[in-house]
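Archive entry. Fields below.
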Amino acid sequence: MIEFKNISKSFGSTVALDDVSLVFPRGKIIGLFGPNGAGKSTSIKLIMGLNRPDRGEVRVDGENPQNKKQDMAYLPEIDHLYPWMNIAQAADFTRTFYTDWDETKYRELIKFLNLQEDMKISKISKGQRAKTKLLLTVSRRAPYLLMDEPLSGIDILTREEIINTLIRDYREGEQTIIISTHEIAEVESLVDEVIFLDRGQIKLSGNAEDLRVKRNMSLVELMKEAFRNAN
Amino acid sequence: MQTSSLKKFLKLYSKEIRELRPEILVVLIATLVLDLLFYFKARQFLGMIIGPSMMMLGLAAFLPFISSFKLLGREWNSNTIYLLLSLPVKGGSILGSKLLALLTQYLIGTVVVTTGGITLAYLLFPEPGLAETLRQAQAAGIDTRLQTIISSGALFYLMSLVGMAYVIAISFFSQLLGKLVTRFSGLVTAIVFIATFWLMNKLMTPLWQQLGKYTQLHMNQSNFSIVAFNQLVGMNTLIMLAGTIIVFIAAVLVYNHKIEL
Amino acid sequence: MEFNTSQPIYKQIIDDFKKKLIRGELKEGDKIPSQRDYAEQVRVNPNTVQRAYREMESMNMVETLRGQGTFISISADRLEEIKMEMAVNLVDYFISEMESLGYSQKDMFRILKQEQSSGKESADNDRV
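PREDICTED_STRUCTURE:
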């Protein structure tokens, strides 16, 4: 379980998160939604320990995120892999650092995603890079999978592949996936829990199905309404 | 899947070496080309070789310092810092592997240039010249036994190695502090570098003064004492090692506790 | 299978199984896909599928046998109940929609009868 306790974070004069308290429950797929600049990326970076809060505490399973990196599989929005590596080298690099690497899953996934081991990171298309990032994170049996805009800039077919991969390999109850995206429609049927952020504050949160029952609206419609009311 | 701190460190180290591959190769190839050039062209006198060789040596010795900026700065420029910071590894391994790779670069570069130069000199100006030089040195009271030359040379080289580690540590520390500010990062790095250098020098000055007095005491002999020389070099090495460790630890602390994206 | 995302997905999954049962596409004792397989087929969160399967189990529609899978396990009475529920829901929906448009109960019956007989005619025509 991941907890944010009164988290505030600013970058210069920009407030990314404003006294946010929330819980990311264990074993669920959680959608972190909101417009650009809402604080989604910052939240994920705080969980990963790539940022430190100005005020408040982040706790992953009760501990400081800095000590939980071996339990995290991180898929950032930016291209963070070494450009001179090919997929085989990137995989070899990754498996050296984590005890939860699943070689069988890796072999299977690389075929499923239509990638080749000799593909050089700097030479492949954006969609293939997105799939490579997915390959390296999902080939691990990591308790936490943090995905920051995994679908942005990706063509529709590749998106389908990515979502299918996530569903195929998701270990419900054991694995917690946090997906931050502004493409809510794509992940409507994927998320258990949702958190809507806007300008550093929580606008709405809860169980996706319960919200549908209560409000008779899709998550997309819910977000539109939440933001219309804010303005 | 078994992982150990050592395996992780070695994996990081081999990645750093791969990043330094172009620089290492440049020195190797340049030395080879230069030496071959000299071998076939410059047969007049030894002096013609020594000049450029010294320059190559200077380059080989200085290059790792330059590379230290590339090794760390590039992680930010290519966004791979996101990968490094998300790994279950602390600053000690990250910076340590970079430092070791740069020292490897230093080792390879200097050894290659020196070996190439000596081989060249030996091939072009064989035995008589060498024997004559040794005789002259002996006459001047310098201990010319092979083992002494090697041990003193090795000690001196070790001092240079520690000296290189020292400037690399300061380079890392300054770069990391520079990364803590969003603007004028380069300027901050430069200022911190100079300031740290100056500060460490101030700290080490009293130690050097002690060393100076000690040397005065033992060098008041007509013969240049190899033992005194070794001790001088050895002490200086230890002083610089202490300084290196202090700055390196500071850099690691900044990486572990202050660096953010 | 496309889901209406304004409605809870797990309910739509259950409805889909209900319809298959009513149509006779699924019968007593038939094996339905495992939760994981079903989730992959319809591209839905496995947790949601789990919720649906659990509900269906508590609704006495299916039964899960350890190590073997999930099977349709529905009594004839229960099936009748479900058929009636489904029919009632559809009719209620029809009535409320028609009422909101201003049609009277008489109008509804008349139009129903009219459509029903014309439907039989075209079916007869198709046979010829």
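CURATOR_NOTE: The beta strands of chain A are 2-11, 14-24, 29-33, 55-60, 72-75, 144-148, 176-181, 193-198, 201-207.
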